[in-house]
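ok trying this again, last paste got cut off
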Amino acid sequence: MQDEDRVLGLTRNGQAKAYPIKILNWHEIVNDKIGKQPVVVTFCPLCGTGMVFDAKVNGQSLTFGVSGLLYQSDMLLYDRKTESLWSQIKTEAVTGPLTGARLKLLSSTQTSWGQWKKKYPQTLVLSQKTGFHRDYDRDPYRGYAISEQLMFRVKNRNSDFHPKERVIGVDFDGTVKAYPFSELAKAKQPVQDKLNGTPVTVTFDKKLQTAVIRDAKGNEIPSVVGFWFAWFTFHPDT
């Protein structure tokens, strides 16, 4: 791991874990536990969205796999118990016996490995010994994040920002809002805002390209970092 490598970081139950994006780019899903809590760590390379969910649904722990299918250019997971298909960004089962069931989004952070290990020196990190022969230092999507082209069509498009502009998006009790990194970079830090009348603070580190949303008590609010086009196509009223 190099300090500049990107990770999806998770802290819960007194533990810290880091999942390198260069591994998630290839495998997209990690079934894991943090403490005793089962979680599913997901990353969609086409949308740039890293999202961690509680793996318990309706009281039962599920494990998930990559279906190879897409909805609105976003990955569809499947659970191995019922083979229902789940939309990552929508956080919902869209076909199968569990249609309409929701996944609970947990707080996670997309940041650099150097920053994460500095903040959490006792962190665990996902090993490259995955059982598969992959060159994890090779990015199979190289150049995609700067291109204006999408690989697949999506329903809703908006040209206010570059389609691959990174945003941190939040759905707070039905209020949906996105904070583009380019706008956060111009703003005085931290950014004070309100969601449904509730004060929140958005902190952005331009150098580390890391954004976090917290409530008035300093607790991290579950949010999604990803490409603008992906956030907008699922949340056209954002």
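PB: full thing came through this time. The chain is about 10% helix and 45% strand.
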